Amino acid sequence: IPVDNFDLVIFGGTGDLARRKILPGLFRRFISGQMPEEARIIGAARSDMSVDDYRVMIRDAVHEFDPASAKHKDCLERFLGQLGYVAVDAMGEGGWKELHAEMRENTVRAFYFSVAPSLFGAIAERLKSFGLADDQSRIVVEKPFGKDLETAKKLNRSLSEHFDESQIYRIDHYLGKETVQNLMAVRFGNMLFEPLWNSQYVDHIQITVAETVGVGGRGSYYDTSGAMRDMVQNHLMQLLCLIAMEPPAKFDPDAVRDEKLKVIRALDPVEPHHIVRGQYAASEKTPSYRADVENARSFTESFIAMRCQISNWRWAGTPFYLRTGKRMKARTSEIAVVFKDAPHSIFGPEAGYHRNVLSIRLQPNEGMTLGVTIKEPGPGGMRLVDVPLDMTFAEALGPDAEEVPDAYERLIMDVIRGNQTLFMRGDEVEAAWRWTDPIIEGWQRRNDVPKEYDTGSTGPDDALMLMHRDGRRWREIK
Ligand code: BG6
Questions:
Q1: In the predicted model, what is the mean pLDDT of the chain?
Q2: How far is residue 249 from each of residues 102, 195, 258, 421, measured CA to CA in Å?
Q3: Which segments constitute the Glucose-6-phosphate dehydrogenase C-terminal domain (predicted)?
Q4: Which fold has domain 175-468?
Q5: Domain 6-142 homologous superfamily, CATH
Q6: pTM: predicted TM-score of the whole model, two decimal places
Q7: I need a surface site. Which of 241, 257, 299, 397 has the fewest CB within 10 A?
Q8: Active-site residue among 63, 72, 100, 235?
Q9: Cα separation of 189 and 252, whole Å?
Q10: Strands (E), 39-153
């Protein structure tokens, strides 16, 4: 279903995110027929560049970052025809009138801030003072949304001077992933899971987001951020919220976000001995973290494992283990709900140790698997075996199902539709910082040194110990 006609201005339109994700994503929506032929996308950035040069840049970007879509040659030329470009000085006066001249009446206006957060306030102010944005316009802001509570509050204040909360779309691209939304469908669309979804039946929950990449060319940003600010405060926290929240009364933006906020507020402070920080070492082929960020004395973590506790009626006593890191063994993101043992085994000790685990895979191979215990087939007596009830989406929906859209594609279409459900509200972001700030301050006070771990491993051994101490173990990363 096509969305309404729109004008989308991308500040930072020549930047990495625009070329890698935003524009190839919009092109895929164009191919699928969801982006209207009259819609316009206007790149805005500092450099002086003609519209033709911009189109060449974006054509190259689509070829580089999405070669499969680039094969739709005619389509790509039509898409490029819908692009515009204006050189704009975000902090000054230059280019704003020209940008204004590009905007049309009676279309949805959206402004994507794919720029450093230090520019958010200035751009928001100019959008209003030059008459580009009105009460119906939307602004989209990227992470990092601040680096602590104070900076996040400042950003919220500077945006809210010019825009109402209902116009502000704070992106966390994890919320746009197919499985993440499916998590809500599975939890609240079935009778099967919800009655068991609490500390009476769930032993613990594990959330792992493992990456094989290092920090690459983003060293200067990453070294001031670390895994806690880069991944935990936003992506892992959002996953935790969706897993742990109470059923909202409706699937509407504020009902969902109210419930997520309650989860963050119910998180206990984390004891230092419940956190393990790591930094990747050099391998034969790849540099160490410290070499990557060109800081031989860096104490920033590229890995984190932690045990969290949500103090509310539903989850008291059920730990949540979070783990994320770079240069790990495999690229895997998984949420695992590990259920408790059956209260009594009628099959005796020889039947072995069995537990139901619901594994929700975000990537790769998006889907869910429920481990169920059955009798081992054959005449060998009552021996038990675990088999997966597999709900891999691609297989379940068949070969004709539309390809799963990338997170950015979906989220941008939601902006045009005016649906904020999958975007973070200002108070949510602030509550998340309120929880992470004391943890980070604690490390700074104690001069905490991250443990080194091997590239291609599952992180430092201490992370294994974190689980062992509790008589549990991490799920395999594969
Ligand atoms: C980004 C982080 O938000 O998410 C990156 O800044 C990280 O450091 C990325 O690599 C992971 O996203 P995905 O979608 O590849 O899992």
A1: 94
A2: 42, 17, 10, 13
A3: 184-475
A4: Dihydrodipicolinate Reductase; domain 2 (3.30.360)
A5: NAD(P)-binding Rossmann-like Domain (3.40.50.720)
A6: 0.94
A7: 397
A8: 235
A9: 15
A10: 40-45, 83-87, 108-113, 138-141
